[in-house]
Amino acid sequence: MVTLIHSENRIWANLLTVKINMKISITWQYIIALLVVIIAALLCHQLAPSLGYYFVAFIFLILVTILAIFLTTGPVLFASLLSLLVWNFFFIPPYHTLHIEKTEDILMFGMFGLVVIMNGIFTARVRRQEQRASEARFLEESDRLYKTLFNSVSHEFRIPVATILAASDALLNSSEKEEMNDALAHEIYTATVRLNRLIENLLNMSRLESGRLSPRLDWCDVSDLVYKVVNDLKEDLKVFSLKINIQDNIPLVKFDFGLMEQVLYNLLYNAIHYAPATSEISIVAGHSKGNLVIRVMDRGPGFPAEALENVFDKFYRADEKGTGGLGLGLSIVKGFTEAHKGYVVAENRPGGGAEVKICIPTETIDMNDISNSQTND
Amino acid sequence: MTEKEIILVIDDELQIRRLLEITLTASGYKVYEAATGKEGLIAAATHHPQLIILDLGLPDVDGQQVLGNLREWYSKPIIILSVRNAEEEIINALDHGANDYITKPFKSGELLARIRAALRYGENKEDSAVINTGDLQIDPVNHIAKKDNELLKLTSTEFNLLHLLARNQGRVLTHQYILKEIWGYGYISQTQYLRVFIAQIRKKIEEDPSKPKLIITESGIGYRFGEG
To answer: Residue A167's CB: how many other CB atoms inside 10 A?
Structure first.
């Protein structure tokens, strides 16, 4: 069954580092190596007369080591050889020739060459191993994530499909018993509603992830939103005591009605599925300091303390109760709220139960202003 | 009841067509089917249906274009079938002559209710007729509305808005359409007026303004005057 998935964010972090290394194209790496050596040579040209050319060798050595942290082996070796030649050509007397006169200089040149190249090779190798390890770790974790997801998605789809198949098959094969037919049709209906909800949520998630979701902001009546959603869920809400508290004279605010409808639907749906029958579910809506604030509260088990920061993660489910679902509801709430430039907070209530608050910055119009301006003419 | 009313279904999905055929036939309609836009246009001309159900996602011609072609000569109700989250497409179709829409997946009961409402709408269209719906009575000639035989205090804008919705009972009217009809072209994007006046009218005509049964909100699209 579905387990808690904490690792997802870490996987993305790993993927990001790997990507940064991959990102600098090989051509650019060579260009960077070339530029670093040229700039260093120009600077050292000023310093060499006072500090001596052995000092210049150390500068090159350090630079190649630093380059090895960021670049791959080819460009590092290129920088190593280039700095060796540059050092010989411009800094070891006689200048502007590759010829070396003094024996100690020849020795020094050989040693510098060896060190600079070894340095480049070893650093690059260590870094490559690190990268391989992190890639392996990433693959391992994404593999685990994939398996968990696959299990939970296939489970969630199979249950309703199995119900539909078995129930419709029974209907096809039954000749009488109207009562049974009613019951089977009811099962088919429930399974299909569940399946449809899954598909809606997956589609919404992919709308969010595609990055093409832009809310169509328009003036809306918050009461209209609340009662629309309550009406959609009225069958499920029958067994609860529902309290709705909408601030008196709440102004009109701007949001995308369709998106906010799904936000509120998901919040209320969660309350219905986690809270025990006959308990109280409250919806409180108000406007303060330029923000529309809607809170949905229940008297269910609340969020597990360790889960509060994860509840908005995709495919996360704080669930020991077997309420079903893929764990997409709250991440869609978060995504749609953030698409409105707002934020969402999950909390446990004093006295037990969960509270989710969404807060959306919005312009307002006082309803009375409009109504007065219109009735006067 | 004399002859069976004819409904034409234009949809490329075989399963949806089969389902509609079963449900509609069981409800006493005669059903013709077309799988493409071109077939649909021909079938509409041959069978003279009382109502057309048109899917917007057709393989050959764009559903909006089929709608446009139909509306050049066909004046009876057209109900659009569409997928969810396609508000703009739906609004576009409603503004170009579609009477109603229903999103897939739909409940057959709801579809049948929409069909009945649309067919009824086709029957009476007199703008000056007194409208009786539930306990509401709207008299456009004398500009008065009554609820339970008691005179409602409505401003003239409120009355016009109520009358517009009520005489299109069962039909979805888009925000833009209502704004244009009541306030004029210049107000076409001023949804705030609509929100305020709908809220005010609901307070006056609904049993429980928080559970509106007469003026029903169609998310992101418009309003529909319900069965009461």
So the answer is: 20
